[in-house]
Amino acid sequence: MKNLILFIPFLMMLSCKQKEQAASQLVEDPHSFSKPAIAVVEHLDLDIKVNFENQQISGKAVWKINNKAKSNEIIFDDGQLNISKITLGAEEKETTFTYGEEKEFLGRPLKVVITPETKLITIYYTTNAQASALQWLNPHQTAGKKRPYLFTQSESIAARSWIPCQDSPGIRFTYNATVSVPNDLLALMSAENPEVKNSKGIYHFKQIHPIPSYLLALAVGDIEFKAVDKRTGIYAEPSVLANAVYEFADMGKMVNAAEKLYGPYRWGRYDLLVLPPSFPFGGMENPNLTFITPTVIAGDRSLVSIISHELAHSWSGNLVTNATWNDFWLNEGFTNYFERRIDEAIFGKTEAQIQEEFAKKALEDAVKEMGDTSKDTYLKTDYTGRNPDEGTNDIAYEKGYFFLRTIEEAVGREKFDVFLRGYFDSHAFQSVSTEQFLLYLNENLIKGNSDLEKKIRINDWVYGPGIPSNIAYSKDLLSKGGKLWKIDGLVVSATKGLPFDTSMLKREIVTSNEKKFFITYLPKKLSVEQMKFLDEQFNFTGSNNTDIQLLWYTMAIGNHYTVADKRIEDYLIENGRMWHIIPLYKEMMKTPEGLKRAKEIYKKARPNYHPMTYMAIDKLLK
Ligand code: BES
Ligand code: ZN
User: Fold this and answer.
1) pLDDT (0 to 100) of residue 14
2) Which one, of 494, 335, 529, lies nearest residue 420 by Cα?
3) Atom 10 in ligand 1: which residue has the minimum CA distance?
4) Domain check: are 409 and 293 in the same one?
5) Global model pTM greater than 0.85
6) Closest by CA position to 49, among listed 150, 147, 141
7) Where is the active site (predicted)?
8) Residue nearest to atom 21 of ligand 1 (CA)
9) Which atom of ligand 1 is nearest to the CA of 309?
10) 339 contact partners, CB below 8 Å, separation of at least 6
């Protein structure tokens, strides 16, 4: 009788706490000390100087606040800033401040004494050498090798290390900034941006839409701009710019495709900034200016779906934002869904379906690793007391994706698209909790239809572990005669040692996604001869596609295919993208000789990595 399910109306399934959360606009955030229900920020005027000599940002953050409760205190998040003075009002009357207890990952609460009438607070500060959001690069770490570079990475909770702020994704504010930099460098932010350098090295920025703090971003370097079309363009170091412009030539088309799906792009311009290779992510959706790693420039435009992803965040994430990091799937699951819809519109159904196949494998692997009863596999997570960065896994990304995909399948794409469009429109520039989304879903799509409820099983997806059995995905490519079915057959032929027409390999496995699929489904254990044979067919070892490199080098390490050793070493030294290098270190660590080699390579690579990256690998290899 275990399977007898009572179909109680959805709202009854929400606990009191969840109902309360759904009802109130402000949701409690376990990763911020601020108390926005009492006093909350609304606008920032930032005035800072970037000093490369002592690697410090210093200046003032002027906050317009809403003292809702007429309180005598406002609380900010502080991540090791050196604060010299805080004043109140336009007249800048000095006030006092204290710090609360420091907590691991979170820094400490900065408690500022205000009056019930306070509307303006000015905080004078300097950043600390350990600021987790900042990477200061020496010239050698850039493409041009002549000038230094600085960039920020604020998501999830690092904004507090370079600006005193209420560092919660549930709190939004507009901002203006004045940034002073050495006069041969350009400064860019997540805002309206300059296109050329000026001789004074003073730049002004304006973000007219309210954003959460994790979308505050700054980059300073020897950077140039080239337009792609009227509203899109690319910033990069001069020696990288032409290749980047070629690689991302489709970015304008992507914005058009995205608008056709879910409504107007509301931010004005959409530009890319290609960073130096130590950038620890593939991409970061900073408003108006997506930050991306140069390592996705494969030369053949094969990794551009990362742009679809970061662009999609202009709706899912930046326009409608997860209220807390426990609702992270609302950012990344929605974005993965949107990303694949953009890719389908531009590159066709087959490519999108192959991506879905990888997504399913990634989700299965994640659930296997975390355990299929683990609460961390719920879509709604609880990272209280932990670093929310731990929650950046394929539960949020791919279980989130498949939840939406399953709803799409249940109601039909047309209806689902109308629903999503309505969701973005009605929550534009707001932060939303999982419970608020579910209320909206019930009111606007399920509408009490109990058949539909049974089909979708919201509760199992959101507050249950593992992968619900009603997961929807396309089976076309894997069914008899389909593209992936054919490749699957070739995996068997190519590894079983049976005679077969080897020219089939190159004929059937052409696109980089097809190659990725082929490698993914190879048996984990292959002989050196088998590896060599495949390499002769496809030259995987020499690939410039980092997705293929990651998969193939993992195989090479596991199978002691030493032909790839040099390439692996170069890859690890030249690529700082965390999620693309840590798996290789982990693979090497599985044997004593591998561990030794990992440490040797790491010694050379570490100076190139971002603090976030080397801190993770230090822990791994210690
Ligand atoms: N917003 C994320 C990056 C992120 C997540 C930074 C959590 C800090 C904490 C970004 O949109 C992302 O998902 N990047 C991926 C892109 C990939 C999924 C196409 C990456 O960097 O690999
Ligand atoms: Zn993302």
Assistant:
1) 52
2) 335
3) 284
4) no
5) yes
6) 150
7) 310 (proton acceptor), 397 (proton donor)
8) 282
9) 19
10) 305, 308, 309, 312
